[in-house]
Amino acid sequence: MLVPLMGVLLLLGVSTAGAGIVIVVLLLKNPPLPLAKLCAVLALTFSASAVVVYCYGWYSVALGGPFPELCEHRNASGAELANMQQEYLPLRSSCGYSDGSTVEYVGMSTNALVCVLASLAVVLTGAAAFLRRRAPQSPERNAAHLA
Predict the structure, then answer these.
(1) Given CB 3.0 to 4.6 Å as the disulfide criterion, which of 79, 99, 104, 131 pairs with 36?
(2) What pLDDT was estimated at residue 75?
(3) Residues 6+ apart with CB under 8 A from 88
(4) Measured between alpha carbons, how far is 147 from 129 in angstroms, rounded to an integer?
(5) Would the pTM of this model clear 0.85, i.e. be above it?
(6) Segments of the chain assigned E as strands
(7) Half-sphere exposure (Cβ direction) of 44: Cα atoms closer than 13 Å
(8) pLDDT in tens, 38-51
């Protein structure tokens, strides 16, 4: 059940990130540049990118990818394969050997990239909200609020 759900999330993330990039390019080509809208679209693009990277990492853990075939029965020091770990949060695939050594196949770089993209999205969302409240209101909006 999770494989189709993650596939849908992956497709939605890719299409949302692509649409966000197109919107950013259009906003940059048509001055004046509304900073609050630009920050909001960038936040959406970064959050969609975080979803895409996480789904990619999830698939590499869940569907095996090169793992567990990469786990050798003995490591370089001759220790026997003791266990294989697969975790989804944080994403992790590793081979554990009897001497206590481990070999990681989904490194921390995937988790770090997800965290950085999600953090940028949160910061840009806050910036967009701040800029939206700070922006001067148009005369039509002031008249609507007074009526």
Answers:
(1) 131
(2) 84
(3) 58, 61, 62
(4) 25
(5) no
(6) 81-88, 91-97, 102-104
(7) 18
(8) 999 999 999 999 99
